[in-house]
Amino acid sequence: MANGIYALISKERLNDILQTLYSFTGIPIQLVDPQGASLQTFGRAAYCGVLGGNPPCGDSCAELLSKASLYAQQSGDTYIFSCHAGLDLIAFPLTNKGDILGSVIVGPFQMDRPDHTILAALAEEFFLPAPVLLKAYDALSDMRPVPPSQVNDLSKLLSYLLSPLIPSERALLLQAKEKLSQQSRINETIQLYKEQGVVPNQNHFYHQEADLLSKVKNGNLRDARALLNETIGYMLFSDGRNIEAIRTRATDLTIQISHIALESGARADDIYELNSRFLRSINQENNLEELCFLLQDVIEGFMSTMTQESDRGNHHIRQALQFMAENYVQQITLEMVAEHVGLSPSYFSTLFRRTTGSSFRSYLCRIRVEESKHLLLHTEYSLSDIAVAVGFTDQSYYSRVFKRIVGITPGKYRN
Description:
Number of helices: 20
Radius of gyration: 28 Å
Structural class: alpha+beta
Largest sheet: 5 strands, antiparallel
Strand order of the largest sheet: 2-1-5-4-3
Low-confidence stretches: none
């Protein structure tokens, strides 16, 4: 299997990277095959030599390294884990088309100074006589601790050094990491609803959906992604794991987002092509987790088209819209935003109206009104507190602007 790794990565380059990393850190490093057997070793921990290798029961050291490599691949990143003897290691998988060709293992190392309790643990795990235990303890005491913060930095460094070796695989690892992260956030949302005793109802879903669409309309990708996971969590909470019900909701959401993209000025041909592709994928996907992740692609795909036109015309407006979406709570002015994007106020004002079809002040008010809807529906804050929270100077002005944009007063919208 080593030949498989070296067919994709120059042996000389890989060895040079690992040797350099070992020389810099002083922490043992080895290249292992998919079964965890060592192919190349750079340094060795005296501690392991004293213990004599594999524990008397449980997985062998090679089996442990093999499992760690698999976990690293599934998580889409480096994987920090502990061995049988209580030391820590880091695994980074080297993959090709989803198959593990081998892994780089950094360690073992310790994060804290050893104490007397480790002797008892070693005696129980390895059935070692007292003289060997003392030897092991001495070897452990000679090992320089690596604080947790440095372990995290070392984990990042390992990823930075090795990811470029197989560029095509990095995208797969990142996607796996994104999927795992999304499922974690969705599950947290579902658990929160259960703990709060929330009763599923359509109004709650529609309010959440409205909040999500508002973020999309305002160009706030970060908050849109967060709200998407909350919305998916509520879908799964209210509909169970009924994939057909989720598919229906996903279809409706995709169509609504495509309309927002069209209204924002994105090219119709781009929107129709994306809409057709996404709806086809939603209809064909039978894996619930993949369907959830597909909705993230929907959000990012359509929001990308909403900024492409600005990129073709003038990227300054895209920067301005992003700045406004992130700072609407502050008392930002046209002059401040113009300075942020590097334009004169007069030219920026003309360019903004030509690109968005709205004046700077009107667009900012619309962002603030959209954000206030969430507070009206999901909090008990007073109207004056909500006005200040979204950037208006007083309740009276907020109420007038809200009615002009929405058609009803904030109080009626709340009720």
